[in-house]
From TrEMBL, chains A, B:
GO terms for molecular function: oxidoreductase activity. Residues 5-309 form the NmrA-like domain. It comes from Talaromyces proteolyticus. SUPFAM superfamilies: NAD(P)-binding Rossmann-fold domains. Pfam families: NmrA. This is Isoflavone reductase family protein. The lineage of its organism: Eukaryota, Fungi, Dikarya, Ascomycota, Pezizomycotina. Keywords: NADP, Oxidoreductase.
Amino acid sequence: MATTKTKVLIIGASGETGRSIANGLLEDGGFEVYSFTRPASAQKPQLLDLAKKGLIIRQCDLSAPEEELAEALRGIDVVVSSVGPADQLSQLNIATAAKAAGVKRFVPCAFITVCAPGGIMWLRDEKEKVYNHIKQLKLTYTIIDVGWWYQIATPRLTSGKIDYAMTVANDELVEGGKTPSAFVDLRDIGKYVTRIIVDPRTENKMVFSYNTVTSPEDIFAMVEKMSGEKVERKHVSKETVMARVEEGRAHSETYPFDASKFTLRIAAEYQLSWGIRGDNVPSYAKYLGYLDAKELYPDFKPITLEEYIQELLSGTATGIYTDRISRIY
Amino acid sequence: MATTKTKVLIIGASGETGRSIANGLLEDGGFEVYSFTRPASAQKPQLLDLAKKGLIIRQCDLSAPEEELAEALRGIDVVVSSVGPADQLSQLNIATAAKAAGVKRFVPCAFITVCAPGGIMWLRDEKEKVYNHIKQLKLTYTIIDVGWWYQIATPRLTSGKIDYAMTVANDELVEGGKTPSAFVDLRDIGKYVTRIIVDPRTENKMVFSYNTVTSPEDIFAMVEKMSGEKVERKHVSKETVMARVEEGRAHSETYPFDASKFTLRIAAEYQLSWGIRGDNVPSYAKYLGYLDAKELYPDFKPITLEEYIQELLSGTATGIYTDRISRIY
């Protein structure tokens, strides 16, 4: 049956979201999975791991001319992009090439929390430029946004017991931590993607994929209860978040993108969107036109927050961004 | 039953689209119809005509502070905006005020042909800024776009017989005039609006309202056949349209809006969108997420193109933009 497999090409397969997607597709078995990888990244251990599982690596420079990109995309059914914040606009040429190559569906790099475009989150607005370009091309697309990852949602324990899987201290609670928000296990994103990209109902639609809706404070309380340890809370006011947003914006007004300038901004604008505005909830996603993955796939069994915390406490969880040291959220 | 009437406030009631909407709502009988009118416009004959039919005029400056706008909107169920191209961004404050006043549905000024945002049509992109603001407010909205008006779609006859109702010569055919496009009778827009704004299916949706899909060349041929006269055709190439677009853009890069600079650009970009790109068709509207008014209201009896041309030839049609002299198409 190899000839009937859907050919999916992932752009950004070595990132956190990209690996989740690659693993989801490879484990599903119904896909032939390719990756565009720039020569400099071809030897990344994350990619070599995926290659062992069946990922086919095509070396390709994302900034290559359109014709070259189109040639490299020939025969691909679905493109899924999970490029980093700095590379969003590199998707413009890729989408044009995908149209020329007859790609049947283009999944641009969304994979963030729910937020309206137009000045709240710089990262969201970068993505909107790509979406608009796709729509002008009349290219079949699906936009997949996700809950906030469990993997950056749990707080540190003072004993240090779960530091092995903590990228950041994550001890902040915005506005008392009571704002409801959707959360997802990073590993489930790829599993959602395997369903969404072959589903005719999701053509030219946005889909919100999340596992549960809860609040940061409820997650802190759950970690305390399950660990038997006290969790430290650093309360952050709306005013503090807004000051960070203003500072982040003031430092990132110029292109080209510079990660050191934009990280503060991205982090602060996330807190503004899901922490202050309460954007990252299914009802708002529905208002904005998203389909709800829970309604599309009622049989999908997501990893529960409790299961993830249990893993974390038993020492078997996997940390994220392990190749970086900077504060992320 | 007066107390159960839906209270609708129109912004821009004296314009072509605004009058169609006001007439539609007033003739329907199910609405209490208000208009925000700036003091300078209160004595416009178009408004006085509508007032005779029942329009209630509230003098209000659109640039008033938000609190004042909110006070003036108190008790209004639906706001429908049909402001001119230069006033699109005045809707930002009005939307904020509408949210504060508890307005149940906000219909921003769309009412143009179908086009994706992001650099094709300046006018479309101005509107997108307003839509994004509405979405950030989480205000219930409906976006209504429409076909190209019959009233500016028929060509001049060399006899001059229908000049009485012609604003422009409209003798141009872009790319042979073969690109399919949706058309509407200006008078039907208001009738569509009366249905759409009380329809729960259209909440937080875009709706495409049009009467028929045909091509400019087919309209020219229909006018020839029905009049027995020859119609002059001025063929315009893609290159000519693109040169106009470039010239229009070069002359309109600065704010504030200056009609004399933007009219060329708006006209050229319309030709680019519906004439070259073929954007203004139901299939593309559906791709972009629009509901189709024909599917929502299968019993709606629109004025046919043939009926309009018959009116035109019999001397009973009404011209548009009669208070202006510049070329509009």
